[in-house]
Amino acid sequence: MAHVKEVTSLANPIVKDIRGLTSKKEREASGAFLAEGLGFVAEALARGWAVRTLAYDRAVAGDPQLKRAIDTTLAQGGQVLEATEKVLAAITRRDNPQAVIGVFEQRWTPLSDLRPKHDETLVALDRVRDPGNLGTIIRTADAAGASGVILIDDCTDPFALEAVRATMGSLLAMPLTRCSAAEFLAWQGGSGAQVMATHLAGAVDYRAVDYAGKPVVLLMGNEQSGLPDALAEAADHTVRIPQQGNAESLNLAIATAVMLFEARRHLLAL
Ligand code: SAM
Predict the structure, then answer these.
(1) What H or E segment, with its residue span, contains residue 36?
(2) Is the CB of 133 under 6 A from ligand 1?
(3) CA of 170 to the centre of ligand 1 (A)
(4) Which of 47, 70, 105 is the last residue of a domain?
(5) pLDDT digits 0-9 by tens, 66-110
(6) 2 pLDDT exceeds 70?
(7) Are residues 188 and 238 in the same domain?
(8) Which of 18, 107, 143, 191 is the most buried (most CB within 10 A)?
(9) Number of structural domains found in the chain
């Protein structure tokens, strides 16, 4: 096919560049990320994410959905590579790679653009460390109808392959914002939202709070150390999910899910 390059060697510089996207430093420098699977790639293209490269296993070259994705990529000025399974396995570091991968430009929503309205819920994560947790939270926020996820201070990268995988496509739908704790504190005052900090020492039962009326920000702490005092003390409420048994705490993604579905209970219907 015209404009499609054949790539069979791992030494090919394009392959090296794409493989580099498994490193956070390279993702930061290029502002790009790697996505796997024809479903994900087709959805990203349909949602208008800017594509830089599409690579596919030549064994699936005849697929009609792939052909449409190739046309869209070429029309956008992206490059298209027909590769071997070996090349795709090396890029994604998987023994059984997906037959299609895409390199897309990252999207970040500036904090100043976040003006949550009545009935909107945001999730704010303080120094989340685990990419699986972050991806799961993005997926859950999407499922609960939240409007965005704010990453405070030094968080794991939502565009890391492991996080992208864990979002199961919700990365494409959920606006992401990053900021420092100081920026978050400055923003929250003027945001019109009520901030619900979750804390193991919270005095208020999370089911006793009124989540209706104002937009809500659910503020979640780091997996190891929980929320720092400066963030917890500035919140409108500090709530706890009551527990029984021996577990010290809930997993961060689980606690976020419990909070999201409670905060949006009045808005969710079958
Ligand atoms: N050792 C940490 C601590 O002392 O806070 C545990 C952190 S926990 C694994 C990660 C985050 O999940 C917490 O900061 C909080 O936001 C949330 N979380 C977990 N269990 C919770 C609970 N029972 N009530 C409220 N928040 C909880």
Answers:
(1) strand 32-36
(2) no
(3) 24
(4) 105
(5) 999 999 999 999 999 999 999 999 999 889 999 999 999 999 999
(6) no
(7) yes
(8) 18
(9) 2
44 within 8 A of 102, measured Cβ to Cβ = yes
Protein residue with least CA distance to atom 12, ligand 1: 252
257 lines ligand 1 (CB under 6 A): no
Per-residue pLDDT of 174-204, as tens digits, reads: 999 999 999 999 999 999 999 999 999 999 9
- Ligand 1 atom nearest to CA at 225: 2
Ligand 1, atom 9, residue with closest C-alpha: 223
Q: Is the CB of 78 under 6 A from ligand 1?
A: no
- Token pair of 229, please? 């005092």
Query: Does any ligand 1 atom lie closer than 6 A to the CB of residue 252?
Result: yes
Instruction: Give the nearest ligand 1 atom to 241 CA.
Output: 24
Per DSSP, 127 falls in state S
**What separation in Å is there between the alpha carbon of 2 and the centre of ligand 1?**
54
For residues 217 and 197, give the distance between their C-alpha atoms in angstroms, rounded to a whole number.
Answer: 8
CATH of residue 16's domain is 3.30.1330.30
Please give the residue range of the domain that contains residue 144: 111-268
Strand ranges in 163-266 using DSSP code E only, listed in sequence order: 176-179, 194-198, 204-205, 216-220, 237-240
Name the closest-CA residue to atom 4, ligand 1: 226
**Looking at 70, 105, 140, which one is the last position of a domain?**
105
Mean pLDDT for the chain overall: 96
pLDDT at 3: 81
Q: Are residues 116 and 151 in the same domain?
A: yes
